[in-house]
Design brief:
Blueprint: H1 2-15, H2 18-22, E1 24-30, H3 37-52, E2 57-62, H4 70-79, E3 84-88, H5 89-92, H6 111-118, H7 121-128, E4 135-141, E5 146-150, E6 166-169, H8 173-181, E7 185-188, H9 194-200, E8 205-208, H10 210-215, E9 224-231, E10 235-240, H11 241-246, H12 249-283, E11 287-290, H13 294-300, H14 302-305, H15 311-319
Parallel strand pairs: 1-2, 1-3, 6-7, 9-11
Antiparallel strand pairs: 3-10, 4-10, 5-8, 5-9
């Protein structure tokens, strides 16, 4: 009887198509909404992976913070709870110290300098360092230039106006220290809590790029923005290293190529998205303040000396000659 059952089971198993069991499904966490350029790029990444692996690997994108905010999804990716997490490099610097160099205020001269540095051996070194923390980091993406925005009764016309303001920042030491040096009171909190905190007056302002300012609807409750351009940290797509290592070499290559193509697509989309987002918030009544940010740059310079482990990378970035 046992032999008969075994024969039946073997026959049923042999009848199951191999393609079904060979398919790999990976989960990707994204904290931005569906209409954000970076989320659109993550869907493009998923399409490219499917195409390049002939449908053997599928990536399910969970947008809008369904799987948690960035700090949480970084931890989940490290632990292998999820496979991918697209995050800003600011909270990632809490995990991999060298990542902090790309999040320093005013570290990049302009967009050309930024991406030539990030696509060079400097950027590769910073990404490779992630592996010792259980993560694979793919090509850097654009996350916009961050500016401060406040409620209408707390406009920032100069660095003096920042003094005493409660400003939401990402929960990362560099952002917190930068805000302190500028005279404000840093208030770390998850991205999803910022709208209600602005609305209720728990905080006076926050900081982000124009795309996030628009898609989060923060402009509705904080309708004054000052273009100080204090940070321009890139975004990055992470993958659990152990999961990546289990995949066949051809699938690893396909995922890496798809990530590169999606990153290049995302950069252009985000640059254009920020231009359009700025126009839209102005149309909605947002007041844009343009200032000379030299006093801001001077105020935050002591921060550089507080991260001596980044000295060599900082010097390499400053000395980098663009083509």
């Amino acid at each position: 009887m046992k032999m008969l059952k075994a024969a039946i089971i073997a026959g049923v198993m042999s009848a199951i198509p191999l393609t079904a069991s060979a398919q790999t499904i990976l989960r990707l966490a994204e904290n931005q909404p569906e209409d954000n350029a970076v989320t659109i790029a993550m869907h493009k990444f998923a399409e490219l992976v499917k195409q390049k692996t002939n449908g053997e690997v599928l990536v399910d994108v969970y947008s809008g913070g369904q799987l948690g905010q960035e700090v949480e999804t970084i931890e989940q990716a490290q632990a292998g709870i999820i496979d991918f997490a697209r995050v800003n490099t600011v909270p990632l610097a809490n995990v991999s110290p060298s990542m902090g160099v790309v999040t320093l205020p005013y570290i990049f001269k302009d967009a050309d300098h930024k991406y030539q540095v990030l696509d060079s051996e400097i950027g590769k070194t910073v990404r490779t360092d992630l592996e010792q923390f259980g993560l694979i980091g793919f090509d850097f993406m654009e996350a916009g230039t961050r500016n401060f925005y406040t409620r209408s009764d707390k406009p920032i016309n100069s660095i003096e106006d920042l003094k005493g303001l409660k400003i939401r920042v990402q929960p990362a030491p560099i952002s917190i220290r930068m805000t302190e040096l500028l005279g404000a009171t840093p208030t770390p909190m998850n991205y999803g809590e910022v709208f209600s905190a602005l609305q209720s007056g728990v905080i006076d302002g926050a900081e982000n790029d124009y795309v996030s300012y628009l898609t989060s609807s923060h402009y509705e409750v904080a309708n004054v923005i000052v273009e100080d351009g204090h940070l321009s940290p890139p975004a990055i797509l992470l993958m659990n290293k152990a999961r990546f290592d289990t995949l066949p070499a051809e699938q690893q290559t396909a995922i890496s190529e798809a990530a590169r193509e999606a990153a290049l697509f995302e950069r252009e989309a985000m640059f254009e998205g920020n231009r359009v987002a700025k126009e839209k918030v102005i149309e909605a009544g947002v007041k844009v303040i343009t200032i000379d940010n030299t006093p801001f740059q001077e105020a935050v310079m002591p921060l550089y000396s507080e991260y001596p482990h980044l000295n060599d990378l900082v010097e390499d970035i400053i000395a980098f000659k663009t083509k």
